[in-house]
């Protein structure tokens, strides 16, 4: 136990030291006035703004998290379905894979105004935008996982008379799990960013709406506070995916 704790401290110490060093440098630059405080508030000012605005931030955060959750859930289901269909039917892969790639070359900020125009200022355009940005990593990750399955094991099952579904369930699906969780980690962080970007362009609640309001009032300490909150939410979601991976794939930890 002590050895594990020492290893954890030894591993995390460089990154924590780097973060502390950056914050200390930031505080010094802001305190001596190299950059005006209204443009670059100090870390202490940001913390004070976060504490002062905490109830309001939590209220907006709840809306953003709901949007991110449903968008990520539907994006994951869509990505899984597309990947299974492409793996099952090569013609579907050849026909639609280029289309899926093209959907990711269009900037998110260019799609968002159209979605708001078509679907209004409610939650629907936000969720659709999150689906668009989250399904792609899931689809590509799962396809890579399916293709990495052990060919000899597949041949063995075929020689034993296994059906395509049995080969998929016994060989291909387990082989793709690590790829799936790696993709899900990326999609989880994308979901929060996608929700905030969509809220910039219209809406009544959410961290993106809060950001546009504090930007108009030049309250940069509150702006930094919400940026750090968004980063913290993304990190927590990625940690949660890592925990789910450990629970679903305990053999990976051995």
Explain how this protein is built.
Keywords: Cell membrane, Membrane, Transmembrane, Transmembrane helix, Transport. Belongs to the binding-protein-dependent transport system permease family. Pfam families: BPD_transp_1. It is built from ten helices and no strands. It is mostly helical and 254 residues long. It has two domains: 1-35; 40-248, MetI-like fold (Orthogonal Bundle). It is globular and about 75 Å long.
Short description:
With 254 residues, the chain is an all-alpha fold.
CATH superfamily of the largest domain: MetI-like
Q: Strand count, sense and closure of the main sheet?
A: none
| Averaged pLDDT | 87
Total strands = 0
Run of helices and strands: HHHHHHHHHH
Give the CATH level 1 class of the largest domain: Mainly Alpha
Which strand-content bin applies to the residues? under 5%
Domain count, please report it: 2
User: What global shape is seen?
Assistant: globular
Roughly how many Å apart are the termini?
A: 16 Å
> What count of helical segments does DSSP give?
10
- The class by helix and strand makeup works out as mainly alpha
Assign the CATH topology of the largest domain: MetI-like fold
Give the % helix: over 70%
Radius of gyration: 22 Å
CATH architecture of the largest domain: Orthogonal Bundle
Ranges with pLDDT <50 over ≥5 residues? Answer: none
Question: Top keywords for this entry?
Answer:
Binding-protein-dependent transport systems inner membrane component; transmembrane helix; MetI-like fold; transmembrane; 10 helices; 83% helix; mainly alpha; 254 residues; cell membrane
